[in-house]
Amino acid sequence: MSDAILQIFPLGFPWQTQDPFLFCVYHLDHYPKGNETMGPDPKLLEGRSIGNDFTIKNGWRMYHGQTIPGFPYHPHRGFETITIVNKGYCDHSDSLGAAGRFGQGDVQWMTAGRGVQHSEMFPLLNTDKENPLELFQIWLNLPKADKFVEPHFKMLWHEDIPVIEEENAQIKIVAGNYKGNQASNPAPDSWAAKAEHDVAIWNIHVDADTEYILPKANTSVTRTLYFYEGSEIRIGDQKVNPNFGITLDASQEVLIKIVAEKAHFMVLQGKPIEEPVAKYGPFVMNTDEEIQQAMKEYRLTQFGGWPWPYPDNVHDKEKGRFALYPNGSLEKKG
Questions:
Q1: Where is the Pirin C-terminal domain (predicted)?
Q2: 329: Cβ–Cβ under 8 A, 6 or more apart, which residues?
Q3: 206 is a domain residue
Q4: Which residues pair with 223 in a beta bridge?
Q5: Is the pTM of this model over 0.85?
């Protein structure tokens, strides 16, 4: 089945993706104990490029955070962010007035549409032990017809996300249909909202010294398998090491042999949008002129402004998992 492999490539930061996806980033940070303000001890920040700390030092990064790791407020337009937090927590705040704390397997699906600002901070809630964070953020494009839809914020709580237990594998279905098992509904204006687009986001964990068959797709789609943790796998006569991505022919099922350690994969697939893509930082449109217009509108309107007290807004330490929606409704998960 190695003829199903179209390309093998190293995983950088971000990961290489195919249409309809724009990119995927994987964050694995072994954060230390938190202090009273939910950040690391200030002494641990010495020698870091605070505000632009993307180099792993002592197992973790601050990213754009000054005192709490994460990404203070920034704008988006023209696409969606899908944020999967397997370990640790993310505090979300946005210009719509929406907010949330999610983690331990939860997923946030945000349609930026015509424009939104948001912040994503990683509060270090544990003061008596370390605060590991494992997070994927996937950018899914919107077609030209939907670039200016109303922004939308949705939570997929881990209690509601289907997890399929097979003999040697566990499959978390964030989006799409896996062997007749359907994921929770995505945001309503998403490219993934229409079944014929066959968008799938699967997080797959396979036991050591076993085999796993990745089923073929039912439609013509792009498919990429990301091998982000483990020791070695084999597809046919092809050996693949961890931290490599594999572009696959989705019309074929693929037998994967797991060698030694448990293997961890992310699968992204979908029908291509097949439209021109113009990107500049947090804006994704179809033309450079539209990018310039997005920048101009952001300078003038700030996409509704920032209703929170700090650009790196975090929520009360004892708040637990929750989602506050733009209409004022509150959902608590504890």
A1: 202-304
A2: none
A3: yes
A4: 248, 269
A5: yes
